[in-house]
Write a structure and sequence with these properties.
Order of helices and strands: EEEHEEHEEEHEHEEEHHHEHEH
Distance between the termini: 23 Å
Helix content: 25-40%
Structural class: alpha/beta
Number of helices: 9
Number of domains: 3
Strand content: 25-35%
CATH class of the largest domain: Alpha Beta
Shape: globular
Strand order of the largest sheet: 3-2-1-4-9
Radius of gyration: 22 Å
CATH architecture of the largest domain: 2-Layer Sandwich
Number of strands: 14
CATH superfamily of the largest domain: ATPase, nucleotide binding domain
């Protein structure tokens, strides 16, 4: 039976979160006002591969997507109005394009001015990425005559500078997602989104920090970094090291199966340590943590070339690996990247930050990404009906 009692102004949206190591799902009753009702299906893990390659990852991710979609459908037998499928790295690529148009005489900035700019950038983006398919665009920020303007349409200026977020998904992944979704949610409209834009839109609306901040999302196979400054998504980067990198190191050190390693690391973090294995686990964690920080440092070096970075970092990730990786970010060896030349201030994003958006106890499910995506769907998307 239906789990939501829909009203004429509410819509039920199925959200599918596709990451590098799992597929999560949630049914959300979206409406004009808060609170949001949410019912989440258990995440389906992507089979743990010792050697990661795109074809094998795609096959295992499709299996997890199929399972998650079926779980979601069983939660709600009523009408589902739309499916929102959100890709995390490595299933999409993105860039922030800066476009400047300057004319000798002042001109009126019409709405079609931006649509023409975006259409041309979409064409270029698609031509550059043959194995990809365009997903979305977003005008992050616009300046008229050098000054930020929130609503530039119909205003007059000599110069227009626009910052546009563009993303494209792995074409094969998008096609498989469409196929699997169509099997379960028959004749239901499907749209795609990317985690970078979702996280930026929601968190920049919650975290009011004039100096800006970094968001580091530690996933299963990848780590994503986003810089938000002056209410704009300024830069994005990612590297192929995540939770599973640590698990593989521990598995190799103990000569155990990969499936067992997560439980071993969880037990170790809670203080359940045997004399036989604790030294090996500690060494593997130390080794993987140092290597992960090396990759992060390399990414931050490139991102800080033009401007030093904000002081605050907000982390998204699963414990205990998230804690292992992020524990050294507040040390002085990262202070070279920050505006004040002081160590980063690190906080982990937790469900309580988002609790006011949801009906009582719904947020206790504690899947931060699904909660962010639910808020994004409710607040920033115009649904097609």
């Amino acid at each position: 039976m239906p789990i939501f009692k829909q009203t004429p102004k509410s819509k039920v949206v199925a959200i599918i979160d596709i990451t590098s190591s799992s597929v999560g799902g949630a049914l959300v009753e979206s409406n004009e006002n808060y609170p949001i009702a949410i019912s989440a299906a258990p995440r389906s893990p992507v089979n743990f591969l010792f050697d990661v390659n795109l074809e094998a990852s795609l096959r295992c991710t499709t299996d997890a997507l199929r399972l998650t979609a079926k779980k979601m459908k069983s939660l709600h037998l009523g009408k589902i109005d739309e499916v929102l499928c959100v890709f995390s790295s490595p299933w999409f690529s993105s860039k922030i394009k800066t476009i400047t148009v300057t004319r000798e005489k002042p001109f009126e900035v019409k709405k079609d001015f931006f649509s023409q700019l975006i259409k041309e950038e979409e064409r270029k983006f698609n031509n550059d990425k043959k194995e990809s398919r365009f997903i979305e665009h977003e005008i992050i920020k616009t300046e008229l005559n050098g000054y930020f303007v929130k609503n530039p349409a119909d205003k007059t200026a000599h110069s227009v500078k626009s910052y546009i977020y563009l993303s494209a998904g792995v074409k094969k992944a998008m096609e498989l997602a469409e196929k699997e979704v169509a099997k379960v949610f028959v004749h239901t409209p499907l749209r795609f989104a990317t985690s970078s834009l979702v996280v930026f839109k929601v968190l920049s609306d919650i975290i009011k920090d004039k100096e800006g901040f970094l968001i580091i999302d530690i996933g299963g196979e990848t780590t994503e970094i986003n810089i938000i400054r002056n209410n704009a998504l300024e830069q994005s980067a990612s590297f192929f090291k995540g939770n599973n990198f640590l698990f593989r190191k521990v598995s190799a050190a103990l000569n155990t199966f990969l499936k067992e390693t997560s439980s071993i690391v969880q037990a170790y973090s809670r203080g359940h340590r045997s004399l036989e294995s604790s030294d090996k686990i500690a060494a593997a964690i130390k080794d993987s943590t140092e290597e992960w920080r090396g990759y992060l440092k390399s990414s931050l070096t490139g991102m800080a070339e033009e401007n030093l970075l904000p002081q605050n970092i907000f982390i998204i990730g699963d414990d205990p690996v998230c804690g292992f990786f992020s524990s050294g970010l507040e040390k002085s060896d990262f202070s070279e990247f920050t505006i004040l030349r002081k160590p980063f201030i690190v906080q982990k994003i937790n469900p309580e930050w988002l609790s006011h958006y949801f009906k009582e106890d719904d947020y206790q499910r504690k899947d931060v990404m699904l909660m962010l995506e639910a808020v994004y769907a409710n607040k920033f998307l115009d649904f097609r009906f």
